[in-house]
Write a structure and sequence with these properties.
Blueprint: E1 2-6, E2 9-12, H1 16-33, H2 42-50, E3 54-60, E4 65-70, H3 72-83, H4 89-111
Helix pairs in contact: 1-4, 2-3, 2-4, 3-4
Length: 112
């Protein structure tokens, strides 16, 4: 969405579905953070790391470039939570939300 403010100044905002998804993510992370007694900010880091995707395989040909992407951040967080003594359900919820964002990134990467 673009809003022309005059004098050559334009305000560029993301699309409405993206704003709604971001608001839901922030709301859920804030609500799950209330379940934890301390270190509420770590939920945001669990979410960010879980949303991390990397290319495992890249191939370039005359038709273009193909990248096989994989949500490695979610796997790293799962291994960390499995071996950690400070396991909390809110951390798993935040990492699952990050995995959902990673899947969304994968879909957007392959479709567009």
């Amino acid at each position: 969405m673009e809003f022309d403010l005059g004098n050559g100044v334009t305000l560029m905002l993301p699309s409405i579905p993206f704003i709604i998804i971001a608001a839901v993510v922030i709301y859920l992370l804030k609500r799950w953070g209330k379940e934890m007694e301390t270190r509420r900010l770590t939920l945001f880091f669990y979410f960010l790391i879980s949303a991390w995707i990397i290319p495992l395989y890249t191939r370039t040909s005359s038709e273009g470039t193909f990248e096989l992407m994989f949500p490695v951040g979610f796997i790293v967080i799962c291994f960390y939570l499995y071996g950690s003594e400070r396991y909390h359900r809110a951390k798993l919820k935040a990492s699952l939300l990050g995995f959902a964002v990673a899947v969304y990134q994968l879909v957007m990467h392959y479709l567009f």
